[in-house]
Amino acid sequence: MSFFKVENLGIHFGGVVAVDKVSFEVKRGECYTIIGPNGAGKTTIFNLIGLIYPATSGKLFFESKELTNMAPHKVADLGIARTFQNIELFEHATVLQNLLIGRHRHRKTSLWQELLFTPSVRAAELAQREAVEKVIDFLDLAKVRDSLVAGLPYGVRKVVELGRALATEPRLLLLDEPSSGLNPEETDDMAFWIEDIKRHLGVTVLMVEHDMNLVSRVSDRVLALNLGAVIAEGTPAEVQAHPAVIEAYLGKTA
Amino acid sequence: MRFLFKTGYAQDLRLFKHGGQVFWYGLLLALLLGAPFAVGEYGMSQLHFILIYSIVGLGLMLLVGFTGQISLGHAAFLAVGAYTEALLQARGVPFFVSLPMAALFSAALGWILGLPALRLKGIYLAIATFAFNIIVEEVLARWEGLTGGNSGLHLKPIELFGMDFGGDAGFYYLCLALTILSILALMNLLRSPTGRAFVAIRDSEISASCMGVNLATYKTLSFALSAAFTGIAGALYAHKVTFISPEQFTLLQSIELITIVILGGVGFIHGAVLGAAFIIVLPQIISLAKDYLPSNIAGSGLQAVVFGLVLITFIIFEPLGLYGRWLKIRTWFELFPFYRQGMFRRQKSYMKSERLR
């Protein structure tokens, strides 16, 4: 049984084939990275996995359960969380509230209990808070805990978004360009965290990334895309040396 | 300036964050409880309206301020609450049954109105709710067998467990209790998962959905809850004015209701109450001012002009509303002399590329 499998996934927007029959498999506990030049269809694949776009063709399996025709919010219930390339946080809420929203799938209380704030709601809220504090400790977010996201710098927001995804206690974590917009130091931190997430939290990571330094540092396997189609798959070193990948990035020698 | 020293997670769940708040809200409550002994008949009547409109404001705040959905049709829910109360009272149903029924009917209608909201956003949602208001108004005017059409319905004073709540003070305490309960319900909601899901929808639908928030369920729930609050206010409103007819629940009324949240401050519970007080008090100030104005200015259109001007002024100069202004003044004093311009300016959000259609 495979952990996460994508089979012949495809989508076209009008005449533009954004993703063309892409198949790959992610093993439990590994860090799998998708690379490719701009417009290769990397983020589109993420949006297809998140069921934000309906796939034109193909199937998605998570722990042998098919999720192709599920409602989008059910994906989170299965234990798949994601971050966004350009950050989609809840801007007018505090960091703590953002992370608590990550706990949404673990809620147990009903609307009536919440309106009255019964002792069971209080107990549940304290338990959620404790779970969130673990993430805050892990990512070192304690000093911005009560700040509004709208006032935070880009680098910190990126970490908060990672934290929000971790707060859902995912089994598969999708990271869309975790290092974009970060300085070298922040990228370094991000690499540490991704390694820790994989090793210590045991979360499988599926990532889209441009920074080849980061990719070779944390990835177990890499998939290279160009113009919506797979051109190479293998270890980071293998893929970087693959002639089709070099051609896609640098062009053909004359 | 006050620094909160936090020692436990339970501290963040408290309704009052520190002793100062307990003191000031306690004082406010004491003043409100004592009001019937100090305020005349006319003042009491104004207080009734402020409390009733506060409940509407709270309902609208939940929808507009916390879920990010616009409604230009809330007068319809007010009408449903009012008519439910009037019709049930006429059939001898006691108040403690008819009030929840008013809330329930409104909520049901709110849920129905929430369904188109799943596909509509911004101005288009405003137009849909606007149309809803007109439909309800029209139904109330035409369904003469039930609603009495344009000749309206009369209500008797409220009687609850053998006690008469028809008097000024009795009705006032009833309104006050319901307003406080509404505020508590809203605060409770906002510190639990449902309230957070609403805020998530307001700020980013796509990531709310990725966190497992069912957009359809929570949007319709927000409409239903908001309508329930407004339905309760409608029932009280009906008793306050003792006579209801369709022309009290027009589009203009809806706009007045949305003005409450905009003037009060979108996204603050305080804003709902402050906004309600403001739109009740403003007409009184205008009518007082009329005595000092030349007769060609002090015509009947003056109120509409002033309302419009106030609304435009707020949107341009103080989008955070009255409560936002109060926060700024307080911060100015707390930080004196270090307050600087633009401390409350919201940073431009970074580019957003992934959007739900």
What does this structure look like?
The complex is a heterodimer of chains A (254) and B (357). Chain A is of the alpha/beta class and 254 residues long. Chain A is globular. Chain A has a six-stranded mixed beta sheet, with helices on both faces. Helices cover 40% and strands 23% of the residues of chain A. Chain B contains 14 helices and four strands. In chain B, strand 2 (159-160) and strand 3 (163-164) form a beta hairpin. In chain B, helix 2 (41-66) packs parallel to helix 7 (168-190), helix 7 (168-190) crosses helix 8 and helix 11 (251-264) packs parallel to helix 14 (321-335). The longest helix of chain B has 27 residues, at 215-241. The chains are: A alpha/beta (254), B mainly alpha (357).
Summarize the structure.
By secondary structure, chain A is an alpha/beta fold.
Count of β-strands of chain B: 4
Shape descriptor of chain A: globular
Main pleated-sheet profile of chain A: 6 strands, mixed
Give unreliable regions of chain B as ranges: 348-357
Number of helices of chain A: 10
Measured by DSSP, the beta-strand proportion of chain B falls in: under 5%
Question: What share of residues of chain B is helical?
Answer: 55-70%
Class per helix and strand makeup of chain A:
alpha/beta
Shape of chain B: globular
Provide the gyration radius of chain B in Å.
21 Å
Largest interface: A-B, 52 and 40 residues
Total helix count of chain B? 14
Provide the succession of SSEs of chain B: HHHHHHEEEHHHHEHHHH
Poorly predicted regions of chain A: none
In terms of DSSP E residues, the strand content of chain A is 15-25%
Order of helical and strand elements of chain A:
EEEHEEHEHHHHEHEHEEHH
Q: Give the termini separation of chain B.
A: 46 Å
Mean pLDDT of chain B: 88
Radius of gyration of chain A: 19 Å
Arithmetic mean of pLDDT of chain A: 91
